[in-house]
Amino acid sequence: MAKILSIEVEASQVRVAEIEVRGKKGRIYNCFCIPAPQGAVEDGQIRDTKSLGEVLKEELSQRKIKTKKVYFATGSTRIASREVRIPFVKANRIQSIIEANATDYFPIDVSKYVLSYSVIDVESQKAEGEKEETKQYHLMVYAAPKAISAAYAEFAENAGLTMTGITYTGDSIYHSVRGEYAKGTHILVKIELKGTSITIIRDGELALQRNINYGVDSAVETVRAFPEFGDRLDVNEALEVLCSRKCINSALDMEPAEEAVSDEARMMETARAEVTESLRYLIGNISRIMDYFISRHTDAMFESIDCCGLGAEVKGLMQLLSNELGQQVNVLDKLENFALPVSAQDEDAYLYAAVLAPGTSGVNLMEKISRKKKEKKDTLSGAIIIFAVGTVAGVVLTAAGYANRIYQQHEQDRLNQRITEESSIEDIYNAYNNAKSQYDNYENMYQYTNTPNEGLKNFIEEMEEKMPSDITVESFSSTGTQVSFSMRVTSKSAAANAIMQLRTFESLATVTTTGIDESEDGTVSLSVLCTYSDPAPLDTSAE
Fold first, then answer.
1. Of 109 and 399, which is predicted with more confidence?
2. Mean pLDDT for all residues in the chain
3. For 116-133, what is each residue's pLDDT tens digit?
4. Which domains does the chain have, with CATH numbers?
5. Distance (Å, whole) CA 296 – CA 202
6. Cα 489 to the center of its chain, rounded Å
7. How far from 426 is each of 106, 162, 433, 477, CA to CA, in Å?
8. Distances in Å between the alpha carbon of 489 and those of 285, 503, 518, 528?
9. Which of 142, 428, 456, 513 would you call most buried, defined as having the most Cβ atoms within 10 angstroms of its Cβ?
10. With b meaning 16 or more CB within 10 Å and e meaning fewer, what string describes 135-164?
11. pLDDT tens per residue, range 227-236
12. Which helix (H) or strand (E) holds 481?
C-alpha cells in the first residue's frame, strides 16, 4: 500500500498522520496536530471547510509532505451503528443485503445516508435436529448522513487533497489496537473535548462500543470561569492549563484540607473541586457502561483500562478515573504494530490511535458519487487525446464546409417555414407560464398556513416514542418556535439520561435545562427549554 494521509478532525484539533500499511504493520512517516478554530468543527461535522482546508494545506506545504490521497476518520454522533447477523454469503453480496434491509436496522430515510459495514466475526451454530453447522456473519453496520461526506469532500478539495474514503473513528481505533488486546477483556476510553467513545475488546474481538456526549469540555468551561487559573482564557488556553497544571483532585468527593490555609489557597482549592465535579457525569457514564457489560458477561473481568485522545493529556485525570472506577487507568502510550517516527519525539501515540489503520476493515462512509470523481480524473489523459483527434477532424470539416453551404441554406428555409406553421405554440407556452405563476403564488400562500403546532406535533410523537414511561410532565407550554416544560423523574441519573435523550430528537434544534430541584423523596424536578428544528414562519405582513 502506497503512502496515504490519515486525518481525524476533532472539535479541538486536527490530527494528521502520513502512513504506509503493509500487512498488519504500518510505518508512520509524519504525524502532527493542528489546533481547530472554535466552532469550525461540531460533532464531527466540519462547518468551516474553506479556512480549515487552507490551514491544513499550508501546514502540509511547510512540512514538505507531498502525499495527496487522504482517508478521514470521524466520530460524529450522527453516525448510527448496529450489530446485525446475516446468512453466510459471498463477500460481494453483503453490501446489497445490508442496503435491502437498512430500514429494519435504522429508522431513517436511507436515501439520505451512506451505509457501510465491518465484519466482527463469522459465527457457526447448529440448529436443533440438524447435523451440520450453519455459518453467519456478525457485522457492525454504520449509517452516516451524506452531508458528512459532502463536508469532508469540500475540506479535502480546499486542502488540495484527493479523498479516498471516510471511516468511523470507533472502527478505526478497534483495528488499531486489537493486536494489543488479543487475550482477555480490555477497555479503551477515547476522551475528546465534546464526547467520549468506549470500546470493549474481548479476546481480540469487538464486544461493545458506546459513545457518550460528555468530554472534557465541562472541565474546560469551569477552568475558564475561575480567575484562579487565568483571566479571559479561550478554549485552547484553558486546555493548556488543564494539561499543564494540577486542576483536578484525585477523587470526586475529596474533603478539603483541615489545616489553616491562606484565602488564596482556599480559593484555588474550591476551584479545583469545581473542575473535578464537572467530570462527574463523564465518570458516571463510563462506570455505567462497565457495569452493563459485566451484567451481560458475569464471567468477565477487565484486565486493563487504557485512555487515549485529548483526555489522556489532562493532568490528574488518570488518577481520578482510577480512584472512581476502582481500577488502574493507564494512558495508551504505545501500539505494537505502529511506532512514531524519530522526527515526532514531541508527539504522543495516544493522540493518533484513530488514524493508524484507515480502511483496514473496509468501512467507507464516503458517498458513491464522490468516489466517481477519481474515475473522472483518471480519464483526463484520454480526453486530451480525443481533443487532439477532434481538432484534426475540425480542420477537415472546415475544408468541406463550402460544399455543405447550399444544404444548410435549404435546411434553414425549411425550419423557418415550420416555425411559421407552428407559431400557435407560443400561446400555449404563455398560458403555461401564467398557470405556473399562479401555482407559485398558491404555494407561497400555503406556507403561511403553518401554525405553532406544526413543531409541537412532531415533538410529542418523539416524546411518546423515545422517553421513558416513568417521567411525569408537570407543566407544558409551546410557541411557534419553542416548547418549555417541567418534568419529574426518579433520580439525578434519570434526569441526565432524559436530557441526553431529548438531545437526540430530530424535532428539536437545541435543548437547555433551566433548573433542577431534588425533593426529599429523592425525585428530581427539572425545567427544560427546547427550540424546534423547523419553527413556524414569522408573520412579516406588518413590515
1. 109
2. 84
3. 998 888 888 776 666 677
4. 1-82+89-110+140-168+355-373 (3.30.420), 181-334 (3.30.420.40), 453-532 (3.30.1360.100)
5. 13
6. 30
7. 51, 49, 11, 56
8. 18, 17, 10, 13
9. 142
10. ebbebbbbbbbbebbbbbbbbbebbebebb
11. 999 888 998 8
12. none
DSSP state of 256: P
What number of other Cβ atoms are within 10 A of residue 4's Cβ?
20
pLDDT value for 110: 85
For residues 211 and 199, what is the distance between their CA atoms, to the nearest angstrom?
9
Q: SS3 helix, strand, coil % of the chain, rounded to 5?
A: 45, 25, 30
Distance CA 246, CA 499 (A): 31
Question: pLDDT digits over 243-300, tens only?
Answer: 999 999 999 988 776 664 678 888 899 999 999 999 999 999 999 999 999 999 988 8
Cα gap 71→88, rounded to integer Å? 29
Average pLDDT on 489-517 reads: 87
| Among 302, 307, 332, CA closest to 184 | 302
Q: Where are the alpha helices (H) located in 278-424, listed in sequence order? A: 280-296, 317-325, 368-378, 380-421
Helices (H), strands (E): how many in the chain?
15, 19
C-alpha cell at 86: 446475516
Cα–Cα–Cα angle for 279, 282, 285, nearest 5°? 145
Residue with cell 407550554: 477
Q: What are phi and psi of 187, to 5 degrees?
A: -120, 135
CA atoms of 471 and 477, how far apart (whole Å) = 17
Q: Cα separation of 494 and 488, whole Å?
A: 10
Q: By three-state DSSP, how is residue 89 classified?
A: coil
Classified as helix, coil or strand, 93 is helix
DSSP H or E segment with residue 525: strand 524-532
> Region 17-27: what's the mean pLDDT?
78
